[in-house]
């Protein structure tokens, strides 16, 4: 893995001065004639046409290709509930990634409320402004209700990236690791450390992909059907996971496990990793501090991945969300289906397939081929599932 020079605080803050986004016009504005066409009086003709036929907005405005990046700042990176203002640099970065890797314009919207009803109402009122919604950094379990409510209320693609972007890339990475190790994915014993937004979505997509033995853990231990106090989301998953009926703590679940998927921010000891099955796979994805240092995990596991760019096998959502939204919008999809997410994971895996190795189970986030491949696969899946227009 190519090492980069240490990044200084001054360099970081200098790059963020004034924010990371700017608007640029797509029509000339340098003459009186150009101004009359792009703005008044010419723009009135376009507005009248849209008023007479609202469908024309898709042709004559940017709204149908604009992604709203929406957050309430309650679960930002590993920083937690830092509020909407402090979350804005992250949302600006997300919008920049949409443009760089998906060719899509997007706008950050940070909301000074954590009330699901208020957020839904706000986005419904803003619906004429955008063509899709990327939910970002909303805490669990509210994020599940918020996404469901927005999917029901809006006639456009909605996806909570912390859930589904993570799940898509994790599935692609696990396929890559299994291919390198010449193992079948279905019989793997997978432990998911963390039953928040990402953990729940990863468990669901792994089950959908055919993995039969998935065990979730949270701060109170193993999620199982007999445990008291489970919220509805965890209770639903308890009914379809943990087929061996494991109880106890994370360390108990890891004994004999083939895969550890870390999404909790908790610390995992070397001793626990050593109890996993031989030739194991460790995805320590908490940022900025992995659950276990990858060099330590590599003493016992055959494949190790993190969410960081300074170690091999970076599992990064940027491999998924730009292409997922691009494909959904290209197809005119009304929503993002499970089939579209699985297609995205397949596309990421296929890009990596020719050069798979123990230290390259997914493509580099800088690989220019990923976004178009994911977009094409997602659009095709949307058409096949009948959600395209």
Topology readout:
Elements: H1 9-16, H2 32-38, H3 42-52, H4 57-60, E1 66-71, H5 83-102, E2 105-110, H6 116-126, E3 132-135, H7 142-153, E4 158-160, H8 161-181, E5 189-193, H9 197-208, E6 213-218, E7 221-222, H10 232-238, H11 250-254, E8 259-262, H12 270-274, E9 280-284, H13 294-297, E10 301-306, H14 321-330, H15 338-352, H16 370-384
Parallel strand pairs: 1-2, 1-3, 3-4, 5-6, 5-8, 8-9, 9-10
Antiparallel strand pairs: 6-7
Helix pairs in contact: 5-14, 6-7, 8-9, 8-15, 14-16, 15-16
Structural descriptors:
389 residues; Rossmann fold; 2 domains; six-stranded mixed sheet; 43% helix; 12% strand
Helix/strand/pairing category: alpha/beta
- The end-to-end distance, rounded to whole angstroms, is 43 Å
| CATH class descriptor name of the largest domain | Alpha Beta
Q: By CATH's scheme, which homologous superfamily of the largest domain applies?
A: NAD(P)-binding Rossmann-like Domain
